[in-house]
Design goal:
Helices cover 51% and strands 8% of the residues. The chain has a 5-stranded parallel sheet, with helices on both faces. A two-stranded antiparallel sheet has the order 1-5.
């Protein structure tokens, strides 16, 4: 009877040794750079909700850039050149105001003194409380015992660590670095500037054009799908989220400068609401009026509104759908931020919104 228990004990000890060995490997390699800058050639992941926790701890920066997918393709090097800063891009696709505010607070605590924030109206829709958010680990960002344990004892992180170790072998470094994007790896990008950025040789004309934009407009306004335009929109709840996640963050950090901007959606985003969900358009305009009135009264905020620049927003060739603009417009956004050309006047906080409303009312959709 003793032999089976002996074998079981050995199996248990071997299992513990393997788990501890994997945890030690992750600690030493530290692919997320949570404990220290990488000792090997650093690689980065496009899983921004995880990667940002490591970037905040491993990178040097004085400015952070936040937003959703509308801000995800900006390059840090372009931000630095245009604005004369040392930036860290923390944009997260599909993120809400709770997630953005939490991540920004972590970056501010690590030394950020300027925040550039692409503020979409839909980030203020209802979502899970940050402490129970299934998509963002607050413990990882806070480096609690639970967060560190989840990192060290992650099989996925052990796999990434093993690949990083193999990639560090000189004869294998170059071929494996080239192959990394095609391997089952999360940490495949060797330049932090490439995180969720379009390839430098990307064909902008094929990705962003009027045909795609009009097709997207037809899709979202089709009777079977038009109800989704207003999904999650509720004025009172969105105002509460704005006051908690935006105003609360800004007022807690009076020594930090916030450059906040309303992104240049195509005019068709608002026309779609006008035509099939006017109640949603009313919520959006009322909400952004409230946001503009509140933010322009805060001394450490500069608010910019790019939604009524018709030379851009009416040119449907600038978009891949009704909201996502091309890298050409990314460059313009940075130029506008640097010049302050479209900064909202605190004495007339809704002037640009009034202009946008007039444009939306008058606009006629081009026929295919």
């Amino acid at each position: 009877m003793r032999a089976p228990f002996t074998h079981l004990g050995r199996l248990l000890l071997a299992s513990i040794a393997c788990v501890l060995g994997a945890a030690l490997l992750t600690f030493v390699v530290d692919p997320l750079q949570l404990f220290r800058p990488s000792r090997l050639t650093a690689f980065y992941s496009e899983d921004t909700r995880v990667q940002n926790a490591g970037l905040i701890r491993s990178q040097s920066f004085d400015t952070v850039f936040m937003g959703t997918s509308l801000a995800i393709h900006f390059r840090q090097s372009d931000i630095d050149r245009a604005l004369g800063v040392h930036s860290l891009k923390l944009a997260m696709t599909g993120s809400n105001s709770r997630q953005q505010s939490f991540v920004l607070e972590q970056a501010i605590d690590r030394g950020a003194r300027r925040v550039i924030w692409a503020m979409d109206d839909f980030i203020f829709i209802d979502a899970a409380d940050i402490e129970t958010d299934p998509y963002l680990s607050v413990d990882l960002y806070r480096s609690t015992a639970k967060g560190i344990a989840s990192y060290l004892f992650s099989a996925a992180m052990a796999k990434e660590s093993a690949f990083a170790l193999v990639r560090s072998v000189p004869p294998l470094r170059e071929p494996l670095s080239r192959a990394a994007p095609f391997l089952p790896l999360k940490f495949a990008l060797h330049d932090v500037d490439d995180i969720y950025a379009l390839p430098r040789d990307f064909d902008v004309a094929s990705g962003y054009n009027a045909q795609k934009t009009l097709a997207a407009f037809a899709y979202i306004t089709a009777p079977a799908r038009s109800r989704f335009l207003g999904e999650g929109y509720g004025y009172d709840a969105m105002v509460r989220h704005f006051e908690r996640d935006a105003v609360g963050l800004i007022t807690r950090h009076p020594d930090v400068t916030f450059d906040i901007y309303f992104p240049p959606y195509s005019i068709l985003q608002f026309v779609a609401m006008r035509d099939v969900s006017p109640e949603t358009l009313e919520i959006v305009t009322d909400l952004t009026a409230r946001i503009a009135e509140a933010l322009t009264q805060l001394p450490n905020v500069r608010l910019h509104d790019f939604r009524a620049i018709n030379a851009v927003t009416h040119d449907l060739g600038n978009y891949s759908d009704v909201i996502h603009h091309s890298p050409v417009i990314d460059a313009k956004v940075l130029k506008w931020l640097a010049s302050g050309k479209y900064r909202v006047d605190p004495k007339k906080p809704t002037a640009s919104l009034d202009e946008l409303k007039a444009q939306v009312a008058a606009y006629r959709v081009p026929q295919p």
